[in-house]
Amino acid sequence: MSRVRFGIVGVGGMGSGHARNMPSIDEVDFTAVCDIAPAALTAATEAFGVPGFSNHHDLLNSGLVDAIIVATPHYFHPPIAIDAMERGIHVISEKPMAVTVSGAEAMIETAKRTGVIFAVMFQQRALPVHQAAKRLVDEGRLGELHRTLLIDAHFRSQAYYNSAGWRATWKGEGGGVLLNQAPHGMDIFTWLAGMPSRVIANVNTRQHDIEVEDEAAALLEYSNGAIGYMLESVNEFPTGMRLELCGERGKLLIANDRLHFWEIKPGVRASSDTTEAMWGHPDAEEIEVELQERDTGHAAIVRNVARAILHGEPLLSPGPEAIRSLELANAILLSGHEHRPVDLPVDRTAYDAFIDTMKATSHDKHVVDQRITDPNHVR
After folding, report:
1. 196 and 246, same domain (yes or no)
2. 165 with 369: CB under 8 angstroms?
3. Count of the separate structural domains present in the chain
């Protein structure tokens, strides 16, 4: 095999964006699309000149694809991905990889058993600023973490939520900002900081006429005694992400797409324990961090998966890592709705029961569907 044949399941909003990226990726051939909506399917087959299928089973059985991108509403990610894996077809899932951690684990276990490549579309991992931050963490430059922070501000209009019947409903989407806009920021956060051991959360629906949360905040506790705070919202403008990791030997800040790193000598605790000066403090020197140019955007993840299939290249966003942001989202939703601390890993049975209860309260939305790709989707 010299090139990987890719199909896309779900060619409405995000799926059509992936389709437009395909010609720029040397390692792939774009060979098929699938969508249950006849108008979307016809538009995609005409626009991209590939065969179309109204049922994902027919696409998977066609012999036309070696790999697929799953870009459907969230609840369909696990069953479609698993059906592909059982046929030996590699998978990239859009985020979130699933609504529940139990669904995500089923995907990971099937990929492991069948030996296929499985990745999640967390393209922000490819950004040079995030790659540089990961190197600092992996090199131990921060030392033991004392505090974490994530403030991830987005904006969505009511018109956005009115654009599809599945959006912002418990039975259609399985959550609000935590399942839709937050996964990218939370993936970077947990990729760098690791997982907390407990969350105490508050979730609200403050500014939109929707079933699910448009704002979530949480206090985080880590197993080493570190503390953290995070906020996810679609109620702010201008938007942006601020991420802080404060360690014994270094402090890392990502804000406005810029990375700052301070080296602390001899260390925060070490200075406190050894200085004889009442107003003494450690020395902190801001260190310039080199950013390495590289492929970015959704195409970088597709290219990486193709190279993993062809050449064994390590995955940027493997499924077993991508589950972390979903685990945290599930914990925050459970804590916020049940008004109690939640330990991680999340109790799978308890969370499945919670989602079933919330789905039972969900109502149908009668709207005119609009399938429009996010113009900012490249990042």
Report:
1. yes
2. yes
3. 2
3-state secondary structure of 195: coil
Q: Return the DSSP state at 318.
A: B
Name, in order, each residue with C-beta under 8 angstroms of 127's C-beta and a sequence gap of 6 or more: 257, 296, 379
Q: Are 159 and 188 in contact (CB under 8 A)?
A: no
376 found inside a domain: no
Q: Which residues contact 242 (CB under 8 A, 6 or more apart)?
A: 149, 150, 151, 152, 253, 254, 255
Alpha-carbon gap, residue 330 to 361, rounded angstroms: 18
Write the pLDDT tens digit of every residue in 290-341. 999 999 999 999 999 999 999 999 999 999 999 999 999 999 999 999 999 9
- Identify the bridge partners of residue 243 per DSSP, sorted by sequence position: 150, 254
Cβ distance 211 to 170 under 8 Å?
yes
pLDDT digits (tens, 9 = 90+) for 24-70: 999 999 999 999 999 999 999 999 999 999 999 999 999 999 999 99
Residues 183 and 301: their CA atoms lie apart, in Å, by 16
The residue ranges of the chain whose pLDDT is under 50 are 378-379
CA-CA distance, 329 to 277, in Å (whole number)? 44
Residues 178 and 288 in one domain: yes
Contact partners, residue 353, CB within 8 Å, separation at least 6:
none
Question: The domain containing residue 114 runs over which residues?
Answer: 4-124+296-318
Whether 57 and 79 map to the same domain: the answer is yes
- DSSP helix/strand/coil, 287: coil
Identify the three-state secondary structure at position 63. coil
If asked whether residues 329 and 304 sit together in one domain, one would say: no
